[in-house]
Amino acid sequence: IEDVSIQSVENIINSNEILKNNIKTKLQENPKNIFKGIISSEDKYDFTGKKVLIVDDNKMNIKLAERLLSQFKMNITSAYNGRECIDLVKNNTYDIILLDHMMPELDGVATVHILRESGVSLPIIALTANSYTGSKDNYIKEGFTDYLAKPIRYRDLYRLLAKYIINKEVK
Questions:
Q1: Nearest CA-CA partner of 81 in 57, 110, 54
Q2: Fewer CB within 10 Å, N- or C-terminus of the chain?
Q3: How far apart are CA 109 and CA 126, in angstroms?
């Protein structure tokens, strides 16, 4: 998408390792309550029964996203690569797809190209640890609807769900 310096890649890797270790510790301490209490009383939109497909090659990332999305009472389906995503989209309906950018075999960009070329118009959100100035524009040029930086923050996720599922802007 855009050239990234070696230093920024190393920073991303280091910050992801620290985050991963912190999350592992919290999951081991109390796996059922890691996201307890994060839903704000100001959050008024209901996503109950809405269908989301999460695509990421990292099982820990999927588990975390599932935990976060379960707070919204959504129907969650997971896939571990782009090919599995394409097969699921052919045979099921979803309201939104959260698609990891960097995956082996078929990455998120190639996957979104195939989906768009086959006529899929539903919102596809890029999940990425590579958040930098101009990245949103680059993802949109590739066919994504929007992007969400990892680690996923509740407020950012809620804002995107409201925007693309309910068609409401949230501050």
A1: 57
A2: C
A3: 9
Neighbours of 29 (CB within 10 A): 9
Cα(108)–Cα(128) distance, integer angstroms? 10
The span from the CA of 108 to the CA of 154, in Å, is: 22
Q: Which ranges of 38-165 does DSSP label H, i.e. alpha helix?
A: 59-70, 82-91, 108-117, 135-142, 154-161
pLDDT in tens, 74-105: 999 999 999 999 999 999 999 999 999 899 88
The rounded distance, in Å, linking the Cα atoms of 168 and 160 is: 9
Q: Rounded to 5 degrees, what angle do the CA atoms 134, 120, 138 make?
A: 10
What is the rounded CA–CA span in Å between residue 43 and residue 100?
26
Using an 8 Å Cβ cutoff, are 16 and 129 in contact? Answer: yes
What per-residue confidence (pLDDT) applies to 133? Answer: 63
- pLDDT tens digit sequence for 28-62: 555 544 444 444 545 677 899 999 999 999 999 99
**Structure token pair of residue 1:** 């998408």
Residues present in the chain in total: 171
Q: In what order do the strands lie in the sheet with 124-128?
A: 75-79, 51-55, 96-100, 124-128, 146-149
Q: Who contacts 34 (Cβ-Cβ below 8 Å, separation ≥6)? A: 23, 26, 27, 67
